[in-house]
Amino acid sequence: MTPPFDRHAPVGLNPLHAILLASMVPLFLGALLCDIAYARSYEIQWTNFASWLIAGGLVLCGLAGVWALVDLLRVDRRRARPWLFVALLIGTFVFGFVDSLIHAKDAWASMPGGLIASVIVAILAVLSTWLGFSHIRARTAA
Fold this sequence. Notes:
Elements: E1 10-11, H1 15-41, H2 45-74, H3 83-103, H4 113-134, E2 137-138
Helix pairs in contact: 1-2, 1-4, 2-3, 3-4
């Protein structure tokens, strides 16, 4: 005999969506640390590292954002929609893109704007990931 279906059991994120969310945070934080290292040492290679880390974070953030947007459209209209989570992911992607444009300049010209943009992007990435992992939905009966 199968147990009865509990329609109010919490459902978390899809494991692949969780991997995309959790993987973008260290990339954006790594870019922030590279910018801090460049601000202290003026070794140009740190800005190259930051540029590559931002590019990787943007790819993962974009994929997680598309997944969250599709999830937003699929959510039942009677329940609260996770619009804040999607808005934070879109904001992270937009500010990350601006950060990548700042880092595309010459290494000397990218500071201090690149450092400030990296701080904003890292904070947005942590907030959106935290909100994504804390988002629990109720399962609907089939």
